[in-house]
Specification:
By secondary structure, the protein is α+β, with helices and mostly antiparallel strands. The protein contains three helices and ten strands; from the N terminus they run H-E-E-E-E-H-E-H-E-E-E-E-E. Helices cover 23% and strands 23% of the residues.
Length: 189
């Protein structure tokens, strides 16, 4: 074979190898999470606030990227989000897709936990936006090995997402509002 033909053959084999690697089937033992978008340099068109991720019409701002990794009690987390401007509030998880998105953020940023906007009102859980609360993300366990919400401390009126704290994956837990955690702020664009 001449060297020109060998070179062409080498290029074709190399391209085929790269293409094959890109489309190979991969098996993962971890659950599927939507990969969060990262738009740290993007500013919300309306508010000028740094937007760290988007999903559908929602913009997300991750407190720990902008406040020196400060943690807040739940009311302070809400105040932080509200201080960003009109429409900003702690995240309301309104769909399985949004739950997967937020879980992906927690996983990719290696967070132990974070606040949502969910709070107990009497015997019902509600989002501040007034959207329906389906409760599809509750953990099957907690401090007393009871399914969530369990109101273990007697005043667990705020909804946090914990990252495998009880070896249960990234799940919702009712938590006393005085605990300190970062938050994800959300705004409908």
């Amino acid at each position: 074979m001449d060297s020109h033909f060998q070179m062409k053959l080498l290029v074709i084999v190399s391209l085929a190898t790269v293409a094959s690697a890109q489309f190979s089937v991969q098996h993962h033992s971890e659950p599927f999470f939507l990969k969060p978008t990262n738009f740290r340099r993007i500013r919300s068109a309306d508010s000028g606030v740094a937007v760290d991720g988007t999903l559908g019409i929602s913009e997300y701002h991750y407190s720990w990227l902008h406040d020196g990794k400060k943690e807040y009690i739940q009311s302070e987390a809400a105040a932080y989000c509200n201080s960003l401007g009109t429409g900003w509030a702690p995240v309301n998880i309104e769909s399985q897709e949004e739950n997967a998105f937020v879980s992906g953020v927690i996983k990719s940023h290696r967070l132990d936990w974070l606040w949502t906007g969910g709070q107990k009102d009497g015997s019902c859980w509600k989002w501040p936006s007034g959207s329906s609360f389906d409760g599809f993300g509750w953990s099957h366990t907690g401090g007393f090995h009871s399914p969530q919400p369990d109101n273990r401390e007697g005043n667990e009126n705020c909804l946090a997402i914990l990252n495998d704290f009880y070896r249960d994956g990234i799940k919702w837990h009712d938590v006393a509002c005085y605990h300190e955690k970062p938050t994800i702020c959300e705004r409908k664009a």
